[in-house]
Amino acid sequence: MDLDGFGSAIYLLTLSSCVLVYLSSSSNSQFTQFRALEPLLSKSPSRSRVVWTSSLEASPARYNPEDWQCKATSHSYETTKYEIDLIATFLDRLSLQDPTRKRPRHFVAQPGVCSTSISDALIGPVLNLVKLFLFYVVRDVFIPSVVLLLKMYQARLCGSPHHTITPFKAAISVVHIALAPLVFLTFLESHQPVRIGAQTDMRGNEYVGLTPVKEWKRFEMEAEYLLAKCNALYEKVKDRTKLVTVNEQAS
User: Fold this and answer.
1) What is the mean pLDDT of the chain?
2) Given this model, what pLDDT does residue 92 score?
3) Among 81, 123, 139, 214, who pairs with 58 as Cys (CB 3.0-4.6 Å)?
4) Count of C-beta atoms within a 10 Å radius of residue 250
5) Burial of 151 by CB count in 10 Å (0-12 exposed, 13-18 middle, 19+ buried)?
């Protein structure tokens, strides 16, 4: 589903009368998609869930409140993903304050380090295979010797849990948010805001892990301002779209 020409995908799933919305794009696009669907989400028989896609690269180090649309920065990816962390976390705090419990819940997911067809298109199939091989070397260490146990502990200390590598394993975070009873996700409400991430052990067995939203206390107030800016931009774009539609119908 393509919304308002923003060129970003929206995935709608109905799960036991609960509507799940999975958003995958930049911060402004994800916010636009959510706002356009918000009236429908509020009518769900049970509380809807909105999954925002973030990244391990999300960092406040590159965030500039004066350049919130990332027009001047050369690190737009890290910035927009951190904006997603802020917006989604703040929206969920607002949802928890809703006495009617009609507002959808908001969760931040991150897929870890995953190889997709995007990299294949950028670097070509040969280099993509080399990259995949190196990923597996980083994550999996098999040494048939008498010091296997020592090497396994060494690999665990040096290995990364975030190398999910395949999209199937990377999807576990979103699937968990979609299928887990909401009561098992609400324990996060009173703690440090987190992203629900896809992780693997050294054998490649996928599981769900948590990574914190960095420097939330420092940027909590900024999250409210950022939300207001996104709302203003959304209303402006919506009004402009209506005007264009009226002009086209009149002509």
Assistant:
1) 75
2) 93
3) 81
4) 6
5) middle
Q: Quote the tokens at residue 233.
A: 């931009």
Q: Contact 19/12 with Cβ under 8 angstroms?
A: yes
Residue 142 has pLDDT above 90, yes or no: no
Is pLDDT at 10 greater than 60 in this prediction? Answer: no
Annotated domain spans of the chain: 9-113+162-250, 114-159
Buried (b) or exposed (e) across 159-171, using 16+ Cβ within 10 A?
bebbbbbeeebbb
For residue 209, pLDDT over 70 is answered with: yes
Residue 109: phi and psi, rounded to 5, are -115, 150
107 neighbors 92 (Cβ within 8 angstroms): yes
Of 11, 6, 12, 42, nearest to 27 by C-alpha is: 6
pLDDT recorded at residue 240: 79
**Side-by-side strand order, sheet with 18-24:** 9-15, 18-24, 49-53, 105-110, 194-200, 206-212
pLDDT band at 20; cut points 50, 70, 90: low
Name the DSSP letter for residue 192: -
Q: Give residue 39's pLDDT.
A: 87
